[in-house]
Structure formats: structure tokens, C-alpha cells
Write a structure and sequence with these properties.
By secondary structure, the chain is of the alpha+beta class. It has 11 helices and 32 strands.
């Protein structure tokens, strides 16, 4: 037993001595070995190579620190830098004239690749020489007499980085940085340096990519790789996609994404096929649901086709992006169930809430790139089940001067070419409304960013409106709801700049038939004092013509025809609520006793009772919140006096003619002279 122990101890000591001797001999020849290997490698790849310390031993493996492979030209950045290259040799295979690396470890490598347009990349020459030519050539490169055959059983990359610098046609340079967390490659066939099975974990900013498959290295570098990513939100997409993120944000489009697919083809004609799963999708800041999209990416071309949505809202879309010489973007989509209110507030944040409802339709978006201001939009839409908000004058010191009109459907054709949104035509249908028209919106563009600038927009709208019962339109108006009813027909135009009433210009005409008009302040209002009869009565027609300018509504015509009163009004209503109007009125004589202004003069108006209509007038002034109506009583009294004088004069003349037995036809100038004298005497009494 003691003998066995001693023999074992001697063997261990001998092995330790042998290892120490091998390490000593290796280190003493380190520079010679390193220089020989570097010169051979330089010859093989055609690039300058430098390296730092060479170390290790046959048992634990060898390493070379600080390896640098120069760029394609002296002024170019280094193509590859490496903190450490570790490897282990198979000494058994050396006896068979094979240089076999059981493994090679690339620790913290940085690979720099530069690509200019359609030209090859900056490592094309190295890849070609290392691989020994195209895939059609022999696997092994010729060896000189006595040269060992090189075989690598496994290549491992740890904590690496790939920097891809792209020079675009517009002389724009952009760097894409990929972190290679780990990667490994095993030759498909022993000794082959052309074909590898690989696995890799790569990060591109916050996108994590796991890939595995086959790589063929040569003049036609080809891939057949399957890959998948982690889940990521569009708002967290890599900075390289900032332009795309900006466009998505313009339309409030966000989602959680996860992708998987394949990478096939060569370095210059690679094809990426992807299936993207989408969750928590929102558009115009509205939650839509989930879905998926199929994407095909080629060197200068991206195509996509997908659907997202849920039970209420859905988008189907297809399109593409070309990044070649003729850059272009195209998106065709069909959609349904989009909230109009949220969409308008996202696209035009300064616009009031003009409508609600659910939007559906189709749209075509195209342009030379992804810049929102260069994109052209053509859309055909239908909105259902909502209301339109319109501005309304406030009465009696009320606030919130907007009121809704309910509708069933709105249809429109819309075109957008920045900075102009054109409503080619629109129609509105509902139980109480039928309207059609067109309009435009123009907005300012920020000169520095090219984005739509916040603030006022120029607008123009023209429309015609019909309603079988205008009361149904106004019923939701808290100020004018009970004011008027009837069959309405009208047309109008309005243009100007939002937020600047002084710029508003427009015109309108309308006719309202067979309705009822009421005191808008209420039948017993103290603001507009009308008798009970005039506070609410039926009319045959109410016709109006007005124009808008200089912050005034100029009423050129407002004619009312009814059984008890006819009226023609002219005047001005200011945007500041000021009133200044005059109305000529013809009303039944019995109405005079019910108007406060006439009550004190009734005993002087006795002769009016025989007339069909009494001609008078009133002035309307003050403000909408403090209106004043002043009837022109004195004018009516003067006209009444003239009427009485005429009647009295005729009676007196007739008596004189009878006494003198003069026929009226033979009186001549005598009668005229008598009438003048009688009138002059009667004026003293009236």
C-alpha cells in the first residue's frame, strides 16, 4: 500500500514538472510563435494585425490579448478589436499534421462594418479570403508542403459588439449598434470554414434577439436563420427608428410588440420574414385591441399586411416603405369603430369638440418618406350615432355657448396635403336634418421642425341645410331651444381664422315656413317685455338674409308674415352681443292694447280700430343679455292725426258742396282750396 502511494505521488510530481517545463518553454518562445501566427494571418486576410501579450499553457489553453485588425484603408476605423482571443489546441491531432482548435473564444470583440449605398461592406475582402472564395469552390484553401490543416471545432463570442455604419444616398450617416451578449458557431462539417450552425443572443438598444440557424460564409454570404424577440412597446423602439416613432405618435398609434421570423439570403440581398404579434394597440390614443402583422424586409424595401382590433374597433392595412433611390411610403387601410372626438383632439388639439360618433371608412396614405408633412391622405369616411356641436349666442348671462345637433350619419371625402386639409364634400342625415357642403382647413408649419404648429387655423366652409322641423334641431340648445319651429331651408358660407373673430366673413340666406315663434327669453321675461299674444304665435314664413364681417352679423333681411303681425327687420348683432336693429311692423288693431308702450295712447288711437292692419315700428337695441324694445308711439300718433284730419276734411267739404248744390266732379280748384283751409284749421285741434 505504501509502495502504491509513493508511485502515485511520483507520477503527480512528474506531471507537475512536465507542465511547468512546457509552460516555461512556451513562454520563452511566445514572441516567436505570436509573430509567426500574426504574419500568417495577415497574409491570409490581407489586413494588418497587431496583438498584445501571448500566454497560457497546453493544459488550460492559450490566449492572445489586445488583438486589432486594421480597417480597409489607413484612414478607416479598425475593423475588428478584441480584448482577448482564447483557444485550446488538440496536441493529439498535431501528430496527424492537423492544427485542431477544440475551441476559440472571442472575448469582448468589437466589429466595425461600413456600408455605402449598394456597394459591398468594409469586411467583404476579409470574409472572401477567409472563406477561400465562393461557395462553389473547394472547402479548403491550398496548403504549402508541411503546412498543417486548420480545423476549428467551436467558436464562441462573449460580450461583443457590432457597429454597422450606413451612408445613405443623401450623404447622411447613421450608426446601428448591436450588442452580442453571446454567440457560438459549430462547423457543419469537420474542418469547414464556410458553413456553420450558430446560436446567438443579440441586443439592439432594448430589443433582445435570439437566433439560431445556418450561416454560409463566402463571396455570397448566405443565411438561413430563425429568430425571435422580446416584447417591446413602440414608444421604446430603438433611436434609429425615431422618424417612424414620430409618425406613429402624430396619429397616437402605440402597441406592445413581439416578433419572430426568418433571415434568409445573402448579405446584399437578405430577406427578413417576420410575424409581429401586437397587443394593447391604440390609435389616436384609443384602445383598439390586439392583432398581428406580416412583414417582409429586403435591402431597400419593406412590405406589410395585417389586422388589429377587437369587437368594436378594427383596422386592416397593407403597404410598404422603399428606402432605395426612389424613397416612398404607402399605407392603405380600412377601419371601423374609431371615436371621432378623440381623433379630432389628437390631430387638431386646438380645435373645439365639434363632433362625436363612431368613425369607419378607408384611407390611403402616401408620400416620399415618413415625414407627416409630406404625406398625402385620401380618405372616404362615415360617422354614425353622434352629434355635431355648433356655437350659439348666449342669452340672459348664460355661459358655454355651444349646442349639439343629433344625426344618424355623416359621410365625407377628405384629402390632406400639408398644410391643408380639404373636405371635398360631406353630407349629414338625420331624422330632423339633411345637410351637405364642403370645406378646408389650413394650418401653419413650424419652420424649424416641419411639424404642424399649434394655434389658429384658416378655415372655409359652405353648406346647405334642410329640416322638416327645426325645433328638433334646436331642442338641445339651452338658449334657443324654444325660440322657433317650422320647415327650414338655408345655405351659407363662413371663412376666417380660428380664435380670431375679427377675421370671420360669411353670408347666409334661409326660409322658415309654417312654424311658431316664441320669446327666446321666456313668455314672462323681464328682459324682453312682450304681451302674451306676441310672446308666442304662429307664422306663415320667416325669411332671412345676413352676412358676417368686422365682428358683426349684419341682418339685411328678416321678414315675418303671420295672421296677427307682419314684420321686416334690418340691423346688426355684434359678436360682443350688442343689438342695433329697426323693424317695420303691420299688426292687427286689437294688438295695440296689449303692447305696454301703446296703452297710454289708446284713447288717441280710436280711429285705428276700423283698419285691417296698423302700420308701426320699433327699435331693438342694448345687448343680448339686456335687450331693449322701443315702439315708435309718437310716429303712430302723428300718422293717426293725419288720418283723422283727412276724414274730417272730407266730411266738411262734402257738406259745403251739398249746400251749394255743387257736384264733386265740378268743384275743380275750389275743393282743393277749401280742403287746405280746413286742414290748417283742424291742425290746431290735433
Amino acid at each position: 500500500m505504501k509502495v502504491l502511494f509513493r508511485i502515485s505521488l511520483i507520477i503527480v510530481v512528474l506531471l507537475l514538472l512536465a507542465a511547468a517545463a512546457a509552460t516555461y518553454l512556451t513562454k520563452n518562445r511566445a514572441e516567436q510563435i505570436k509573430e509567426a501566427v500574426l504574419r500568417k494571418a495577415e497574409k491570409r486576410i490581407g489586413r494588418s494585425i497587431t496583438a498584445g501579450e501571448f500566454g497560457g499553457n497546453p493544459f488550460t489553453g492559450f490566449h492572445v490579448d489586445d488583438v486589432v485588425i486594421s480597417g480597409s484603408v489607413a484612414s478607416a476605423p479598425d475593423s475588428i478589436t478584441l480584448d482577448r482571443l482564447g483557444f485550446r489546441l488538440s496536441f493529439k491531432d498535431l501528430l496527424h499534421r492537423k492544427l485542431v482548435f477544440n475551441y476559440m473564444l472571442f472575448d469582448k470583440p468589437v466589429i466595425f462594418i461600413e456600408k455605402n449605398g449598394e456597394e459591398g461592406h468594409s469586411l467583404s475582402d476579409v470574409v472572401e479570403k477567409v472563406s477561400g472564395g465562393s461557395a462553389g469552390e473547394k472547402v479548403e484553401t491550398p496548403r504549402t508542403e508541411g503546412e498543417a490543416r486548420v480545423i476549428v471545432n467551436r467558436i464562441t463570442v462573449r460580450d461583443g459588439r457590432l457597429v454597422l455604419r450606413i451612408h445613405s444616398d443623401e450623404k447622411k450617416t447613421q450608426d446601428f449598434v448591436f450588442d452580442i451578449v453571446s454567440a457560438s458557431a459549430v462547423p457543419v462539417e469537420e474542418g469547414s470554414m464556410k458553413s456553420f450552425n450558430m446560436d446567438a443572443e443579440i441586443k439592439f438598444e432594448n430589443i433582445e434577439l435570439n437566433a439560431s440557424g445556418k450561416v454560409n460564409i463566402g463571396q455570397d454570404d448566405t443565411f438561413d436563420i430563425a429568430w425571435k424577440t422580446n416584447e417591446i412597446a413602440t414608444v421604446d423602439a430603438p433611436g434609429a427608428l425615431d422618424e417612424l416613432k414620430k409618425t406613429l405618435d402624430e396619429f397616437g398609434i402605440h402597441a406592445q410588440l413581439r416578433a419572430e421570423g426568418t433571415l434568409k439570403g445573402g448579405a446584399d440581398d437578405a430577406v427578413i420574414g417576420a410575424k409581429i404579434s401586437m397587443g394593447d394597440v391604440s390609435a389616436f390614443d384609443q384602445i383598439i385591441g390586439g392583432g398581428g402583422i406580416d412583414v417582409t424586409v429586403r435591402t431597400s424595401d419593406i412590405k406589410f399586411d395585417g389586422v388589429v382590433g377587437g369587437e368594436k374597433t378594427e383596422f386592416t392595412f397593407n403597404g410598404g416603405l422603399s428606402t432605395g433611390e426612389q424613397k416612398s411610403f404607402r399605407l392603405e387601410t380600412n377601419f371601423k369603430g374609431i371615436e371621432v372626438k378623440d381623433t379630432i383632439s389628437k390631430l387638431f388639439p386646438d380645435m373645439p369638440e365639434v363632433a362625436t360618433g363612431l368613425l369607419s371608412g378607408k384611407a390611403f396614405l402616401s408620400g416620399p418618406g415618413l415625414d407627416p408633412q409630406q404625406l398625402e391622405l385620401a380618405s372616404s369616411i362615415t360617422v354614425t350615432g353622434g352629434h355635431i356641436n355648433y356655437p350659439t349666442p348666449t342669452l340672459d348671462k348664460q355661459t358655454g355657448a355651444w349646442a349639439p345637433i343629433k344625426y344618424d350619419t355623416i359621410k365625407a371625402r377628405i384629402f390632406h396635403t400639408g398644410p391643408k386639409l380639404e373636405i371635398k364634400d360631406f353630407s349629414i342625415k338625420g331624422p330632423s336634418i339633411s345637410a351637405s357642403g364642403k370645406g378646408t382647413l389650413k394650418y401653419e408649419v413650424d419652420k424649424e421642425t416641419g411639424d404642424a404648429a399649434g394655434g389658429p387655423m384658416d378655415f372655409y366652409v359652405s353648406a346647405s341645410l334642410d329640416s322638416p322641423q327645426v325645433r328638433a334641431i334646436l331642442m338641445q340648445n339651452p338658449y334657443l331651444g324654444p325660440f322657433v319651429s317650422g320647415e327650414f331651408t338655408g345655405t351659407g358660407t363662413l371663412e376666417g381664422t380660428t380664435g380670431d373673430p375679427s377675421s370671420f366673413k360669411g353670408a347666409a340666406t334661409f326660409v322658415l315656413k309654417n312654424g311658431v315663434v316664441s320669446n327666446p327669453y321666456g313668455e314672462k321675461s323681464t328682459l324682453l317685455k312682450l304681451n302674451e299674444t306676441l310672446s308666442k304665435f304662429e307664422f306663415h314664413s320667416l325669411a332671412g338674409k345676413l352676412d358676417i364681417a368686422d365682428e358683426n352679423i349684419n341682418v339685411a333681411k328678416l321678414d315675418l308674415i303671420s295672421d296677427i303681425i307682419d314684420m321686416n327687420m334690418r340691423g346688426v348683432v355684434g359678436f360682443d352681443s350688442s343689438l342695433n336693429a329697426h323693424a317695420g311692423v303691420a299688426l292687427k288693431p286689437e294688438m295695440l292694447g296689449k303692447i305696454n308702450d301703446f296703452k297710454a295712447a289708446l284713447d288717441q288711437l280710436e280711429n285705428l280700430k276700423d283698419l285691417q292692419r296698423v302700420e308701426t315700428s320699433f327699435n331693438l337695441y342694448g345687448t343680448l343679455t339686456q335687450p331693449v324694445v322701443r315702439w315708435e308711439v309718437d310716429d303712430l300718433l302723428r300718422r293717426e292725426a293725419r288720418t283723422i284730419i283727412e276724414k274730417k276734411t272730407d266730411k266738411l267739404i262734402n257738406k259745403i258742396l251739398e249746400k251749394n248744390d255743387i257736384a264733386p266732379g265740378d268743384s275743380g280748384d275750389i275743393v282743393d282750396d277749401l280742403k287746405k283751409k280746413v286742414r290748417d284749421r283742424l291742425k290746431k285741434f290735433f
